[in-house]
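Holo prediction — S-adenosylmethionine.
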Amino acid sequence: MSRNRLDDRSTRHDRFHQKAKKEGFLARAVYKLQELDEKFALFKPGQRVLDLGCAPGSWLQYARSRVGDRGMLVGLDRGPLRGDVAGARIVVGDVLTIDVKELLGELPAFDVVLSDMAPDTSGVRSLDQARSEALFERALEIATGVLAPGGNFAGKLFQGPDFKKLIEAVRSRFDQAKSAKPASSRQISIEQYVIGKGFRK
Ligand SMILES: C[S@@+](CC[C@H](N)C(=O)[O-])C[C@H]1O[C@@H](n2cnc3c(N)ncnc32)[C@H](O)[C@@H]1O
């Protein structure tokens, strides 16, 4: 077996993967959101949360544990989720083409907008960064359209030449903007999470 295949298998089955399986979470990504929440206090009980790129659904599971039964979750992804996840309303669509406002209809404003969206990677770093930036910018655009004043945003972004500019874009709409790379994010990954706290309408 080649070294690369060995690496693939060991990263797929790392300790966060095993932990998620044991604890009943649908993906190891749950520990990234948990860490961001512990650091930036993203949620409160009873809140309304929109999760962009929500499949397979571990962030929805975590968000439910934080907002409780009185909270409301909406998840959006290109692909359908398997079964009901955490009592969330699921919307299937591509964020780059759908009219989110039309789809969400008369729903009240959200308190938290999350995006863990990642592009299909090509292996060409500059192309993958550009695609990730487009998803991040779209997530931020949606967030500024649907967040209630004071709301929070957390979005994934592959770190590239426009990283600082995009943090500034978050800072221009939120009281605080920060970036973080959770410990459960793989070392080799160039992903970062950009947090906006306190949306200014
Ligand atoms: C890393 S996964 C998200 C994992 C999720 N946070 C969880 O905890 O289960 C990234 C997701 O983004 C979705 N995605 C990527 N591009 C998208 C797009 N243009 N529109 C909607 N979803 C997209 C993918 O289908 C994929 O399910």
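READOUT: The longest helix spans residues 125-146.
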